[in-house]
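On clarity, I found the account of how folds are encoded harder to follow than it need be. An entry of this sort, consisting of the sequence and the corresponding backbone structure tokens, reads as follows:
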Amino acid sequence: MSIWLQLEQAEVGQSLPLVDVLDAIPWNANGLVATIAQQHDTGEVLMLAWMNRTALEETLVTGRVCYWSRSRQQLWRKGETSGHRQYLIEARLDCDGDAILLRIEQQGPACHTGRPSCFYNSIQSDQVVVISAPQ
């Protein structure tokens, strides 16, 4: 039985070893998994990024969020240059392990544009409307 089926059928409070679950994540061809950052207290979705296993393990160990930068091809410790760090409150996996949700404490804006969230372009009918300004 797959790990994901075991978790699907598990009772609340049951657990599996983290290393076994990490081994079962269906990393894409580049060794990455989609990761959503959500502000823990408001529920606002701040950004989508990518993690490889090293970034995920570092995040879990240090509590500071680390991603994989596809453009720079290196680990990206959020806020390393901007100071707009993310601190892990809770990490969750979806039902089949192909997406991670990080509930975080965001310091400063999450988006490189200076906006609080990367999701500031709202599709409204036949228009795309910018709904937030840089902070």
User: Anything to note?
Assistant: Residues 114 and 134 are 5 Å apart (CA to CA). The chain has one domain: 3-130. The mean pLDDT is 96. DSSP finds three helices and eight strands in the chain.
